[in-house]
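Before relying on records like the one below, remember that each one covers exactly one chain. Contacts with other chains, cofactors or solvent are not represented anywhere in the record.
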Amino acid sequence: MSDKKDYVKGVFQRESELVYEIVQAAKSSGLPDDSRLMSLVKKFEHHLTIRTLLLKKLRKEKDDRKRAGGSNKMYDRKETYSIEEILSKVIVGGRKDRSSKVLFGEDKINMASHRYQNFKKNGLSCVSCGITGQFFAKEKSRSRQESYHFNLYALDGSGNEVLMTKDHILPKSRGGKDHISNYQTMCLPCNNKKGNKIIIPASESKSPAPIACDRSSQLQSAL
């Protein structure tokens, strides 16, 4: 980040220097076709082209961060994929080893991930608020050393991206296991609010909205 700031600062500093040189050359020039003055003008025109491209790039990065709803602070994104492109490659019931890795562009990604299996089996919608995943992004964490993987994103009413997660129905802190029968899809905000409670999906609850309750005994047989 500091390198980018230094580069931007340097671009604008060079612009000021060129403007000063042009003004000084214009003052000392007696002829409209002064070679030194024309050379500086051409340099300035070239510089303005570079600055325009730089500003366009910075504006795009800012728009991407805004659209991502802060997600770009956590991940470096390479490219996006449709739902079908990813779910069609998910290896259900497979083990995470070399044989389960699939090449996407330049990156091999383990398609036996429990997250991907959950999205394929249990759906793309948050069991709490109902928001639905719209696309996958190939990303990697900025804070951890890891390879590229796929994150599922939904879009809220303002067009901001919302990260979708694999949630444990019976939390691990309460004895829940890492098994597809104990997973459900939940957006990150709802998952954070849930904590270690147990959420009954709206489709299973008699009440119109999901509620938190203890149904540990109902889940033990499945776990």
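The first helix runs from residue 2 to 28.
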